[in-house]
Amino acid sequence: MVASSLKLQDLIQEIRGAKTQAQEREVIQKECAHIRASFRDGDPLHSHRQLAKLLYVHMLGYPAHFGQMECLKLIASPRFTDKRVGYLGAMLLLDERQDAHLLITNSIKNDLSQGIEAVQGLALCTLSAMGSAEMCRDLAPEVEKLLLQPSPYVRKKAVLTAVHMIRKVPELSDIFLPPCAQLLHERHHGILLGTVTLITELCERSPAALQHFRKVVPQLVHTLRTLVMTGCSAEHSVSGVSDPFLQVQILRLLRILGRNHEESSETMNDLLAQVATNTDTSRNAGNAVLFETVLTIMDIRSAAGLRVLAVNILGRFLLNSDRNIRYVALTSLLKLVQSDHSAVQRHRPTVVECLWEPDASLSRRALELSLALVNSSNVRAMTQELQGFLESCPPDLRADCASGILLAAERFAPTKRWHIDTILRVLTTAGTYVRDDAVANLIQLIGGAQELHAYSVRRLYSALAEDISQQPLVQVAAWCIGEYGDLLLEGTCEETEPLQVEKEEVLALLERVLQSQMSLPATRGYALTALMKLSTRLHGDNNRICQVMSIYGSCQNVELQQRAVEYNALFRKYDHLRAAVLEKMPLVERGGPQVDEEAKESKEVAQLSEAAPLPTETQASKLLDLLDLLDGPSENAQHPPPLDPTPGDTLIHLLDLPCAPRPPAPIPNLKVFEREGLQLNLSFVRPPGTPTLLLITVTATNTSGGDVTHFICQAAVPKSFQLQLQAPSGDTVPAQGGPPMTQLLRILNPNKAPLRLKLRLTYDHFGQSVQEIFEVNNLPVETWQ
Description:
Helix content is 59%, strand content 8%. Strand 9 and strand 10 form a beta hairpin. Helix 9 runs parallel beside helix 11 (189-205) and helix 15 (262-278) runs parallel beside helix 17. It is elongated and about 110 Å long. It comes from Bos mutus grunniens (Wild yak). InterPro entries: Adaptor_Complx_Large_Subunit, AP1_complex_gsu, ARM-like, ARM-type_fold, Clathrin/coatomer_adapt-like_N, Clathrin_a/b/g-adaptin_app_Ig, Clathrin_app_Ig-like_sf, GAE_dom.
């Protein structure tokens, strides 16, 4: 059987000549049988040939695990031809998950101690490719000795192997610290590049190594300046840029060494300015060096002028014809907009032009950056640009664009009228894409602006008459017409064009909303309530409204039916109470991130009133309210007797109160996660009536420049607990401190055992999918005791 085995070239030719997959499998199965037989017979002269064929079969995706032990035999062979194939087989067929890889540790150690460069190179390549943590610990002294060997070939391989060892076992960093300083003086390109990479790995994993290598910053600066100004050998130049790979690696190392270190940053400031001004940007290699220079400038404590230069380089990247370079520039500017807002603002026109890029990823990045650039001085111009983009942007960007415009308007609106007009335009253009809280926010805004009630109701009536397909717009319009319908008919608003509206027209429009197939049940509920309110706002006969309520009294939707029945009862049984029940809502005080001058003045007045002593009667009544609140809304609860206005009697009555259990102290909140502006906080409540129940509210806030989308929070507890996750308030955490996202966790702890919580977060941020899994062990003892 062995004699009829094919040579490697013949096997490749026969496999490539197979016309079907079945023929290919037949050829491979037949040859694998020959290879197995050869391994069993122990043919030492042809073992490396058989293993070579098996490796080719493995590269095609067929099982080849039965050749693992043959690899070990060939590695132990004294012949170089056997060792070469054996080490290649070990790199392909062995890994850390298999115990067999530990059997070659002694063979690698023996080969490293030999003086044959080719054999040492094979052993080092294998160790760097599949060496486990145990192998790295055993062989680290041998690799350290080879770092100072006279052969450049062996030293280069040893440096790369040391990089692998540090990644596998970071505690080995002390072994490789002394040779690195000496290797930095090497002029060999491969050794110098590997040494810089090794020092980078050491500094990222060891604070002691970071402090140690800050002494070599001047040497690194000198090396990079030589590369930039005088260049090196032509064989390492790429498109006229002198050794860009080494330049990029040195810049990365300088970024790590200069981070949060004033002296090191000062040493490299002049060099970074030279690299930024002398690098050719006509080729991609030069752009790579420039981009790494920008990252280094922004990460160290660089001068203000140097940071402006870095932002200007990114601005030039935005004008590049390569879409990848423009995407990198937009992503980098988005990260810098918080720290260097004024410098990034200079490139706002170019960023806005990128909104209309045909590439969806570029357009999304430009949208995120444009929203981050909005402030109080440019809110009108930027909002106009974003609204123009909203009208023609792809559907997958409309939700983000609409939400971003609403948030920007809420934070930086110059006037309430402009704020209302902006929201109305967004609802008219992309009403179906806005967040769920947009309707409530606009209703609250209109309700708090008494001087704009007539203007708002006329604008909304005109928009509703033109289009009833945008459900959020229809809901706001129905609420506003029901609340301020009398102002609509008066026609006294001077800020809009004259509009003559009759009562029948208003009722017909609301009935049209009720009958439309596009109207959601919630929208029909708004319309029903609006009709009911108009029965007190508009003068005349209400038979038409009563008829509509009677029709919806038998509606299939339970909520609409209940609402219509209750309104019918108001007409028939409690008509004398209808005007009082349906009177206008009081002015709503708007709260949010934007605080206008009136709010500031009212806050100051409130502070002054708090500083002044309150009347005794007011103090007593507030004490009663506080006791009622703590005792809960139970109907059978006995209220304490009314307090006497005099201070002395108040104290006596307090002492006469029945002894009640002290309310539990509030449980402190806990911050459990923070990354790139996204923060997760836990707040705790234990209901007094159920001591074994714990309510945890997960609150996610986002202070970065980009929205956190597709946010999912999952939790797990030990088996002795019972966990129930409520639905979250949404899956998007708006940028720049927008409304937080909340989710309620109900945990039942019948044994009152110490609580441990494991959380998994998945979300998209700055175009990247992120998944974080962590355990919360530092929960307050009040959550379970």
